Each structure stands twice: as C-alpha cells, then as structure tokens.
Amino acid sequence: MMNWHCHTCFHRMLDGVTVGGIAIVIDVLRASTTITTALANGATGIWPACTIQEARKVALATGPGTLLGGERGGRPVDGFDAGNSPLEYSRARVAGHPIVLTTTNGTLALHACRDASEVLVGAIINRSAVAALARWLAVANKSCDIHLVCAGTDGEVTEEDVLAAGAILDAAARGLGAGGDRLDAASRAALAQYAEATSPSEVPTDRLHSDATGAVRSAAIGAITAAFATSRGGRNLVDLDMQEDLASAAAIDACDTVPIWHRSTGWLVAAASQSNLSTHT
C-alpha cells in the first residue's frame, strides 16, 4: 500500500515534505519529456543545471562531446546546442553524449526534491514505467510515500503538469500492488482531470492498456494533445510556434525509460534494471 501525494507546484511545497519518500518530478511541457526522450535515445547522462552560468561551467568541465541544452521563456539559449524540445534530442544527435540542461522550471523542480530518498523524472511518455519503478523503489527503501511534484510555470500551477500527474496515477492504479493505495486530495483531483480528458465518450480508457498500439491509444494521444493546447504551457508553445511538441509530449507510454537522479554524481541517468538499483547511490 502506497500513499500518493500530488504537489501541484513545487514552489508551494513545505520544506522537507519529500524527505524519506520517492519523488517523481513532472514538467511535461517540456523538461521531463525532453530528459526522458534524450536518455531513451542514448544520451549517457543529463546534468540538471539551475542557471545558464552553471550549465556552461559544467559543460566545459565535462569535456568535449558534451551538449548544452535548455531554454528561458521557452526559447533556446543563445550559443547552446539545442533548446528544450524533445524533437531536438534524436538518437542521431544525442547517443553517446552527456547533456547539460537548464530550463525555466523543470530543473529547479528537481533540485527542490533533492532530500527525497530517490528522485525520478516522470512524463506521459513513460507514465507506466515511472509508476512501476516508483512503487518498487518505495518498497526497497521501506517507504510508503510517493510524491508527484509538478514544476508549474513561474510559481503557478499549470494544467498540463497536473494532467500528467493524473496519467501516472492512472497507470499506477492499473499496475501490480495497487490494492489499498491511498491518494491525497490533490492526487484524486489530478486523476479525475486525466479521466475527464480521456473520458469514455472520447477514449475508452479501460481498453487503453490492452490496445496500447491501436486506435484507442491514438485517440487518447489526440485528446491529451488537445488538452495541452488549452493549458498554460501549451498556449505558450503555440505562441512560440512550437505546437509540434504537444503531440510528442502526449504520446502515452511511448517508452519505458525512467530517468533517475544520482545525487552522488549530480547526473540523471536511465534507471537500470530494478534488481540492480539498490546499489546505485
């Protein structure tokens, strides 16, 4: 039995609230989607930098072949190799390379969770994998608290991150060991938001898992993309002519890569098999 907590914006979390628990950091548009995509495509690790200055310093120290990525206000940083679009982090571009990434909200949200027992990165594209790994790590760490930490935008709650939290909760409810899980009020609200966005009248969500590659999944991706388009972060991307990122971020369970933060080294890496994780810190 797990206790699921949803923090709708990390700026509003009480100090120390994630201590001893498992944190899943969500910035679905776009940092958590981009981090997951880059690692899925073979990047060797991602350093989440809080500032542009830190990013440049770490990239220089890491050495040749290091890629600099990030944004401010949604726009790529001058002189960086890439912005914050998951579409920029193809296998051809990132495989075998370390990446230093700094974003307006997502990388800061990660650092706000550094006192958790484990810190994972969650998105809609890896929702089932991250939910399963969080549960496994909670058991391994003798914890029963899993925190869904939404990045928000500039200290404000964003609909898209809460929707992604709901998607992860939906996956968790379908996974092994879900019986008896307890959801706080914010988690129940997030799950309801996801259920509404992928409502049976639009998408039969009870068939989503069994039809993961078919028309039902495609309809769900379309419904989530439409929901993103009306969200604060989605509107910002549309205004920046980056609307292609919405469908990329809405691709339910597109991969099983889960980024995990090795605080001892500072790098996010793709989680190893569960049997090997107990020795990674």
Description:
With 281 residues, this protein is an alpha/beta fold. The chain has one domain (1-268): putative 2-phosphosulfolactate phosphatase, CATH 3.90.1560. It is built from ten helices and eleven strands. It has helices at residues 31-40, 52-62, 91-94, 106-111, 127-140, 159-174, 185-197, 215-229, 232-239, 244-249, and strands spanning 3-7, 22-26, 45-49, 67-72, 75-76, 98-102, 118-122, 145-150, 182-183, 259-262, 267-270. Strands 7-2-8-1-9 form a five-stranded parallel sheet. A four-stranded mixed sheet has the order 3-6-4-5, with helices on both faces. A hairpin with a 2-residue loop joins strand 4 and strand 5. The two termini are 25 Å apart. The model is unreliable at 275-281 (pLDDT under 50).
When the domains are counted, the total is 1
> How would you classify the quaternary structure?
single chain
The average pLDDT is: 92
**Residue share in helices?**
25-40%
CATH class: Alpha Beta
Specify the structural class: alpha/beta
Query: So, the CATH homologous superfamily?
Result: ComB-like
- Approximate shape: globular
**What is Rg?**
17 Å
Counting DSSP E segments of at least 2 residues, the number of strands comes to 11
CATH topology: putative 2-phosphosulfolactate phosphatase
**In the CATH hierarchy, what is the architecture at level 2?**
Alpha-Beta Complex
Strand share of the residues?
15-25%
End-to-end gap: 25 Å
Biggest sheet features: 5 strands, parallel
